[in-house]
Each structure stands twice: as structure tokens, then as C-alpha cells.
Amino acid sequence: MLPLIGLLAGIALGLVLNIPIPPVYSKYLGIAVLAALDSAIGGLRASLEMKFNDKLFFTGFFSNTLLAAFIVFLGDRLGIDLYLAAVVAFGVRLFQNLALVRRHYFQKRHWE
Amino acid sequence: MKYFRSFITALNSQAKRTQIAIAAVTMLLGILIVTQLRVHQSATQALQNATESDLTQIVSKLDGEINTLRVEAADLRLQLFKIEQASNNSAEVMTESSKNLNNLKIIAGLTKVYGPGIKALVTDEDATLRAYDMVDIITELRVGGAEAISINGIRIVAATGISETQEAIFINQKQVAAPYEVLAIGNPEVIHDALVIPGGIRDKLSSLTGVSLYITKDAEIKINAASSKKVSNK
Description:
The complex is a heterodimer.
Chain A: H1 2-17, H2 26-48, H3 54-78, H4 83-111
Helix pairs in contact in A: 2-3, 2-4, 3-4
Chain B: H1 2-12, H2 14-48, H3 52-108, E1 113-124, H4 131-143, E2 148-151, E3 154-156, E4 162-164, E5 169-171, E6 174-176, E7 180-185, H5 188-196, H6 201-206, E8 211-223, H7 228-231
Antiparallel strand pairs in B: 1-7, 1-8, 2-3, 2-7, 4-5, 5-6
Membrane topology (chain A): Multi-pass membrane protein
Family (chain A): Belongs to the sbp family.
Transmembrane segments (chain A): 56-74, 80-101
């Protein structure tokens, strides 16, 4: 419930703030979105598995985002679409985490 | 009611921290998504929304603009070329006309003249030389291409008058006396040849008693301007 409120608050905040970012950095921003999404769903999964650690959660979020940004930067410098690596890694984890969350949810419901 | 109570207990538990943490990240996620969508949209909206025909139109419009600008550039280049040429031409005209002006000034005797030429000394011990002999000398010098002539320091121009009385010869109403020093600027060889040609002026002068003509070539002769009184009738 609270995460959903947070998401809506974030969207509202983004609409209100209207942060100006040059189109050049839209790739970085996309990767950051993916990292944030991955972290959010990973956190949801961890909470469902009852092994959520907020320190681990936040450090994971920031380190993932920074590493992804660095990979994009490196790819830009080398002329390789290295950001695809980050996209694939985050994408795979997203689907895995989503699948696990789904499973946990149904198992919980089943237990009730 | 039961749901509400469970929510309250959840807030006080470990689950509360979990929820807050995830909420913080999802809030960040929301901000990022909105910003990214906005950036992406503004970057691609202009051309993304255009249909194929619109794009074709835009491209052809830009092509037309390029062509117009090219034509304009060519026009301007042509104009520049024309102006450059015109300025060159006017410079040529200027030098040409100033040259003409110089020549005319020399002919009119308005300026001092320096240059190679001849120096001729005409002696007249028995005063047998007449005004028309003087005119003959001047004529022969002109035939030889003399640009400037002076006799005893008096510049000879088209308007110069030579006259005589019983006793003396007058140039521009000024009495001149022998020996006459004749200066002429021009090609020394040609003038010399014009004077010494057989049957020419030298032979004619030599036939007069007491008259002789000595000619020397000089690389640097200076002839003064005509006295302004005579030529200032502009």
C-alpha cells in the first residue's frame, strides 16, 4: 500500500518539479528507471520472503544505479552499446523477481 | 476494521520499515519515470508524431530552403565579383586618366619636366638668325618627338609666340639673344637624328653666316614650367 502511495507521490512530484534534463542523458535516466524498478520489486520480493534488510536494500539500489550509469558512460566512450548489458541484467532480474513475488503472493493467499 | 488494525500493527513492526523503504524507492522511481518520459517525448515528439507525408514535406521544404540559400550565395558571389571588377576598372581608369593628365600638363607646359633629351647651342655671331629659323628648330624638335622644349629658359608650348624686330628675336614678348640654348626632352637619338638629317635644320642653319648648331645628348635634362601668366587662362 505504502509503495503505491510512494509511486503516485513520486509521479506527482516529477510532474510538479519538471526537472530539465538534456536529451543526451535520457539513456542514463532510462537505466536509472530500470535500476529503481528492479530495486523496488526486489525489495518487495525480499519483504515477502521475510528477509528484507533496509541497509542492503538502499545500498543495492544506489550501487546498482551507479554501476549502470558507469556502464552506459563506458559504452558511450568505447562506442559499444554497453548499456544493453545493464538493460538485460535488470530486465532478467525484474522478471525473476516479479515471478517470485507472484508466487509468494499466491502461496500466501493459498495459506489463508 | 480488521484490515485497518493489521495495517497499524504492520506499521509498528519490521514490515513498517520495509514498506517505507520500498515506498521511498518507488517514489524515486515515479520521479525518474516522469522525467524520463518527458525528456524522451520532447526529444522525439516533433518528428515522431509526423506522418510520412509530413516528413516528406519537411524534407522537401528543407531542400528548397537549401537551394534558395545556394542561389543566394551564388548571387552574392557574383555581385562581389562584379564589384571587385568594377573597382579594378575604376582604378585602371584613374591611373589612365592621371597619366593622360600628366601628358597634357607636359604638353601645356604646366609642370617641370625631367628626363633624357638633347642640349643644342645655336650661335649667331652676325645676327642673321630670324624668327622663322627659330620656329623651324622648334618644329624639327617636335618632329623628333620632343615632349618639352625650352629656349634660353623659356618653355615653348603651343601658345608660345615668337616674333622679331629689326634688332632682336622675342619669345613671348621677351627678348632673347644669341647664343641660344635649346633644351628638348625626348628620345635623344631620335631628336638628334631629326636635327642632323641631310638637308635638315642643321644644314640649313649652317648655310647662314655666323650660325652654327652644337648638339649634345644628355641623360638628365630639366625644363621648368611655362610662366603661369601665359597659360593661366583656364
